[in-house]
C-alpha cells in the first residue's frame, strides 16, 4: 500500500522567510524533513535553519515554479502573498493551505462576507471607497470606528482609529491604497485567540484558548489559560472548529476574537498559519503549533493537545533587546527565542520569551516591574 503521508527526507517548501517560517522549519527538521525557503532577503530568519534558500520575490513565477519542483509539499508562513502566484503552482505541487483559503483571509471584505455567510458573529462594518463613504457610514456605526485597508495590514499597519469628525481626513489617507473597511468599535474586555489544526483526513485539534494584550496594535503578552469562564472558552473553541471545518483547513488556523463584558464573542481576524499568540505552545504544550502544522500538511495524524503548565509569553521588540540582553543571566526561568534578525528596529519583532508558571499573571507583573517593556 502506498504511503499517503510524507516520509523523512521529503522536502517541504516554505514561502516566506520570517520567524514563523523559521520555527516551521525547525519543527520540520526535527521530524527529518528537508526545507527549502523562498524569500527575497538573503539570510532571512528561516533561511538560516533551512537546507536551501531561493532568493526571489513572492510574485516571481519562475522562482515559485523552482520551489514547487524541489518540494513535495509547499506551505506559506504569512497571508500577504500573491494568491494568483500560489494558484500557479498548485498543478505542480500540493499546497495544503490552498489558494482559496488564502484569497478569503488576505482580503478583509471577502473574509467578512464569508464569516457572515456561515453566521459567525463579527463587528458591524461598511465597505469604503471614498471619503464621502466614511462620512455617511460612520453616522450609523458610531464613534470610535476603525478604518482598515482590505489587504496587507499587520501589527496595526494599514488601519486608523477614528475618534471624532476631525479624524476623518487623516483616516481617509488610507484610501490611497484602495478600498477600505470601516468597522464599528467593539467595547471588548478581553482579546483572545484560538489556534485550531486540521489534516486532510478531517481530524481536528485545538490549542488552549489564549488571552492576549496588545500595545500599539502589536501583540505584547499572551497568557494561558485565560481568565475566562468555561462557557466562553467552549464557545471560542467551537467557533474555531466550525471555521476549520467549513474552510476545509489543512494546517493550522488562528482565530482572533473579542470578548465583551456581557460575554459576547466577536471574530476579529483569521490567519491561516501559525500565529504569534501560539508561541507559548513550544514549551507549555505537549506539541507546538509548528509541529502540529507540519504534521497536518504532511498528512500525518494530529496529536491531542495538552497544556502541560500555565504560561505567559511576551514579545521582544527592537527597543527591548538591550534590556533583555542585560539581564539574561538573572532569569534562568525565561525561555528566550531570538529570530536571527540582524537589525533591531523599534517595534520590530526580534524574539519572544515564554515563562512557565502556575500564576502567569504574576510573571506579567514581574515583566512590568523590570522596566524593559515600559
TrEMBL record:
It is an enzyme of class 6 (ligase). ATP binds at residues 108, 148, 153-159, 183-186, 191, 214, 268-269. It comes from the Bacteria. This is N5-carboxyaminoimidazole ribonucleotide synthase. Catalyzes the ATP-dependent conversion of 5-aminoimidazole ribonucleotide (AIR) and HCO(3)(-) to N5-carboxyaminoimidazole ribonucleotide (N5-CAIR). Catalyzes the ATP-dependent conversion of 5-aminoimidazole ribonucleotide (AIR) and HCO(3)- to N5-carboxyaminoimidazole ribonucleotide (N5-CAIR). One of its GO terms (biological process) is 'de novo' IMP biosynthetic process. GO terms for molecular function: 5-(carboxyamino)imidazole ribonucleotide synthase activity; ATP binding; metal ion binding; phosphoribosylaminoimidazole carboxylase activity. Pathway: Purine metabolism; IMP biosynthesis via de novo pathway; 5-amino-1-(5-phospho-D-ribosyl)imidazole-4-carboxylate from 5-amino-1-(5-phospho-D-ribosyl)imidazole (N5-CAIR route): step 1/2. Residues 112-298 form the ATP-grasp domain.
Amino acid at each position: 500500500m502506498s504511503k499517503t503521508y510524507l516520509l523523512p527526507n521529503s522536502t517541504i517548501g516554505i514561502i516566506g522567510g520570517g520567524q514563523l517560517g523559521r520555527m516551521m522549519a525547525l519543527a520540520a527538521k526535527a521530524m527529518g524533513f528537508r526545507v527549502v525557503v523562498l524569500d527575497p532577503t538573503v539570510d532571512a530568519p528561516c533561511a538560516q535553519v533551512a537546507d536551501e534558500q531561493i532568493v526571489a520575490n513572492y510574485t516571481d513565477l519562475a522562482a515559485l515554479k523552482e520551489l514547487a519542483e524541489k518540494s513535495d509539499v509547499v506551505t506559506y508562513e504569512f497571508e500577504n502573498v500573491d494568491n494568483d502566484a500560489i494558484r500557479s503552482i498548485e498543478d505542480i505541487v500540493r499546497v495544503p493551505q490552498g489558494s482559496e483559503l488564502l484569497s478569503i483571509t488576505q482580503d478583509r471584505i471577502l473574509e467578512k462576507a464569508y464569516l457572515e455567510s456561515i453566521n459567525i458573529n463579527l463587528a458591524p462594518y461598511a465597505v469604503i471607497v471614498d471619503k464621502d463613504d466614511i462620512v455617511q457610514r460612520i453616522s450609523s456605526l458610531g464613534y470610535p470606528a476603525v478604518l482598515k485597508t482590505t489587504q496587507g495590514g499587520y501589527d496595526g499597519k494599514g488601519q486608523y482609529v477614528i475618534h471624532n469628525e476631525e479624524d476623518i481626513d487623516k483616516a481617509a489617507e488610507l484610501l490611497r491604497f484602495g478600498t477600505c473597511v470601516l468597522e464599528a468599535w467593539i467595547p471588548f474586555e478581553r482579546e483572545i485567540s484560538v489556534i485550531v489544526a486540521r489534516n486532510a483526513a478531517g481530524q481536528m485539534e485545538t490549542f488552549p484558548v489564549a488571552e492576549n494584550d496588545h500595545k500599539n496594535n502589536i501583540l505584547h503578552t499572551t497568557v494561558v489559560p485565560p481568565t475566562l469562564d468555561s462557557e466562553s472558552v467552549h464557545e471560542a473553541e467551537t467557533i474555531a472548529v466550525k471555521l476549520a471545518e467549513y474552510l476545509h483547513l489543512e494546517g493550522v488556523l488562528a482565530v482572533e476574537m473579542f470578548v465583551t463584558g456581557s460575554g459576547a464573542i466577536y471574530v476579529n481576524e483569521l490567519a491561516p498559519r501559525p500565529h504569534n499568540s501560539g508561541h507559548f505552545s513550544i514549551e507549555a504544550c505537549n506539541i507546538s503549533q509548528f509541529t502540529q502544522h507540519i504534521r497536518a500538511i504532511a498528512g500525518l495524524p494530529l496529536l491531542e493537545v495538552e497544556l502541560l503548565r500555565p504560561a505567559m509569553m511576551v514579545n521582544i521588540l527592537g527597543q527591548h533587546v538591550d534590556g533583555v540582553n542585560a539581564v539574561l543571566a538573572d532569569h534562568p526561568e525565561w525561555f528566550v527565542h531570538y529570530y536571527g534578525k540582524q537589525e533591531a528596529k523599534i517595534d520590530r519583532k526580534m524574539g519572544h520569551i515564554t515563562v512557565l508558571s502556575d500564576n502567569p499573571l504574576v510573571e506579567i507583573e514581574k515583566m512590568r516591574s523590570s522596566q524593559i517593556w515600559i
